[in-house]
Amino acid sequence: MSHITRRHALFGIGLLPLVGTAATAQVTASTFDVKLRSGRILQVTRWDAPKPTGYILFSHGGNSWPTQYDKLAQVLVGAGYTVLAPLHTDSLKIADAERADLKKAFGDRIEDMAHLGGYAAATANGLPLIAIGHSYGSLFALMLGGALTYVAPVRNAAVKAVVCFSSPGNIPGLINPAAYTSLEVPLLMVTGDKDVVPGFTADWHDHLLPFEGTPVKGSYALIVKEGTHQLIGGQTSAEFGLVTDVTVDFVRAVTLNKETVPMKLSANGAEKAELRHK
């Protein structure tokens, strides 16, 4: 796709790899391989909840990899969700000779998430799926929820909600006014008023485009004061706890078929963040 340039690749298209995400593991991540229709072998990292009430399909940020998000995965598993996360072809964990730039990885990521969504829908025994992504990865979570249909129609009917941590913002040639109008499920968009990426996203408000564009009622935007692009890295425990508490509340409301239940921040949380809703 010509709209993804070398400049975007250098800056991880909105993701600088997370730092400081080490956590004492409550659930050990495992991996398995699946063969895609293209013949490519996709590695998937899995965190299993003992008695899952739903499955999370997680797309990591540009140049990153699943286990950088172990701290987030542990929270989701603790809330009762099994997490599945593919290793995308732009990851720095892939050998240089085999790694794709973000232009090539765009199509690979669509294939990764579409296949993983089909796999999960077939093996989750009817449990709901939730698509979650960070930065660049949020685009592909949104597509499973029905967004960007003009790029590829990969909507997965089993996906009941989408959570985005720092969307990649406004990508010329890709994001247009219709990008998020086709979204079919409730959205939680998480960002912060310091959520910028030098050379790519200069205005943090651009991360709100999916929330502003979706017509779906019961969608929310969480804006954390002083929150950066690393909000789910957990360097500041209070911010990480606030973000994950709201995420779990949102996901539970949707998977329990309570999409209309309004979410509110605690008095303490309201001092640190703003929660907008539709």
TrEMBL record:
SUPFAM superfamilies referenced in this protein's UniProt entry, alphabetically: alpha/beta-Hydrolases (SSF53474)
Name of the molecule in the record: Alpha/beta hydrolase
Keywords attached to this entry: Hydrolase, Signal
Highest taxon of source: Bacteria
Signal peptide, first to last residue: 1-25
Presence of keyword Signal: yes
The keyword S-adenosyl-L-methionine is assigned to this record: no
Molecular function in Gene Ontology: hydrolase activity
Organism: Asticcacaulis aquaticus
